[in-house]
Design brief:
Keywords: ATP-binding, Cytoplasm, Nucleotide-binding, Nucleotidyltransferase, Transferase, tRNA processing. The chain is an alpha/beta fold. The chain is built from six helices and eleven strands. It has one domain: DHBP synthase. Strands 1-8-2-3-7-4-6-5-9-10-11 form an eleven-stranded mixed β-sheet, sandwiched between helices. A hairpin with a 6-residue loop joins strand 9 and strand 10. It starts with a strand and ends with a strand.
Length: 216
């Protein structure tokens, strides 16, 4: 059974966060507000939960899922190493609308799709998302829409698309313009912007002190 919690009401927010944390720990999927669009998420280390997330979206492992974290330091245990370029971007834009791609730690037992040994990481600038992430740890999160349909800026928009496939919906109000995060690939010899979103290519280049190219 699906439950929606209005996070603008203190009691509902507390109950909703507890319900969402319980659902994530039980291997179920939840919808959460972020600073970009609403996301559908689950325990990043539960492969069956990630499979359920992909099934809810109607997409396969060829389109892997990113991971949201609740603090800067969390990424140290998730990736092979954190280069200075990553730390510079984290200090400049986290929490916020920038995702970074790095080689993941080979010891991690997770299956996020066909990632080719990398993981996409972001710390969102939204209090509800941050609180849940700090309670349950890293979550595999994708936009809360069916593949090929618009990413939702409201919890109701997410529910219209995902329905009963989600255990808990946390309604944090409208997310504003549904602009995706900017994705910077740091897995190669030089940084590459794979997708220019809320953070401009120019802003990324300025933070790193060098002209960063966009993927062709």
């Amino acid at each position: 059974m699906t439950t929606v919690y209005d996070c603008s009401v203190r009691e509902d927010r507390e109950d909703g966060l507890a319900a969402a944390a319980g659902a994530v720990r039980a291997g179920r999927v939840v919808v959460i507000p972020t600073d970009t669009v609403y996301g559908i998420g689950c325990d990043a280390f539960n492969s069956s939960a990630v499979s359920a997330l992909l099934a809810a979206k109607g997409r396969g492992p060829d389109m892997p899922v990113g991971v949201l974290v609740g603090s800067w330091s969390t990424i140290d245990g998730l990736v092979l190493s954190v280069p200075q370029t990553a730390r510079t971007l984290i200090e400049a834009f986290w929490p916020g609308d920038l995702s970074i791609v790095l080689p993941h730690a080979p010891s991690l037992a997770w299956d996020l799709g066909q990632t080719h040994g990398t993981v996409m990481l972001r710390m969102p600038l939204h209090p509800v998302a941050i609180e849940l992430l700090r309670e349950v740890g890293p979550m595999a999160v994708s936009s809360a829409n069916r593949t090929g349909h618009p990413a939702p800026a409201t919890a109701q928009g997410a529910r219209d698309q995902l329905g009963e496939s989600v255990a808990v919906y946390l309604d944090g109000g409208p997310s504003g313009e549904p602009i995706p995060s900017t994705i910077v690939d740091l897995s190669g010899d030089e940084p590459v912007v794979l997708r220019e979103g809320a953070v401009s290519l120019a802003a990324v280049s300025e933070a790193l002190g060098t002209q960063v190219r966009a993927a062709r």
